[in-house]
Amino acid sequence: LATGVVIESKLDPRKGVSATLIVKDGSLESGQFVVAGESHTVVRIMENDLGEKIKDATFSTPVTIIGWSELVPAGAEFKTFNTKSEALEYAETFRTQKIKNIPEMVNPDEAVLPIIIKADTLGSLEAIRFEIKKISTDLIKPKIISEGVGAIGEGDIKSANVGKKA
């Protein structure tokens, strides 16, 4: 069974969530179940680095798999399973360990710049988040109130309007 690392993931409006993986060990074949963090998928559509559909991949092969349950964090390790029950059980261990970040209450005397980030890929989102953290000064403290991958939606607009004072 294959193991490896996720290089990138993205949300395509037509194809859904896809992730590019590097197989480090073992063999990845169609029909197997792949888990990376909380996200999981069955390997139905697998493409090589040229965009050609393939049925299996061995070590050091970059592949793109389409149809993930959610966006996969870049750098996450993946593992394959032969049965769906094993894969879901493994994914559940990550789900129970996850701690949600709840926005902190802000002191009104501080100059806080609320920021909403939308990016096309998870890697871009992480890079933007990293750069925003570097621009904090005594006068302005940026605070990411919402972030995500994909197109800007109605929920993003509503969350931006919540922060406005009437």
β-strand amount = 35-45%
What is the rounded distance between the termini? Answer: 57 Å
pLDDT average, as an integer? Answer: 83
List low-pLDDT spans: 99-106
Number of strands: 11
Helix tally?
Answer: 3
Features:
166 residues; alpha+beta; seven-stranded antiparallel β-sheet; 3 helices; 11 strands; 21% helix
Task: Give a short overview.
This protein has helices spanning 84-97, 122-133, 154-162, and strands at 3-12, 16-25, 28-29, 33-36, 39-42, 45-47, 56-57, 62-66, 77-81, 112-119, 141-149. With 166 residues, it is an alpha+beta fold.
General description of the model:
By secondary structure, the protein is an alpha+beta fold. Helix content is 21%, strand content 37%. The chain has 3 helices and 11 strands, in the order βββββββββαβαβα. A 7-stranded antiparallel beta sheet has the order 5-4-9-1-2-8-6, covered by helices on one side. Strands 3-7 form a two-stranded antiparallel sheet. A two-stranded parallel ribbon has the order 10-11. Helix 2 links the parallel strand 10 (112-119) and strand 11. The longest helix has 14 residues, at 84-97. The protein is elongated, with a radius of gyration of 19 Å. The termini are far apart. Mean pLDDT is 83; it is low at 99-106.
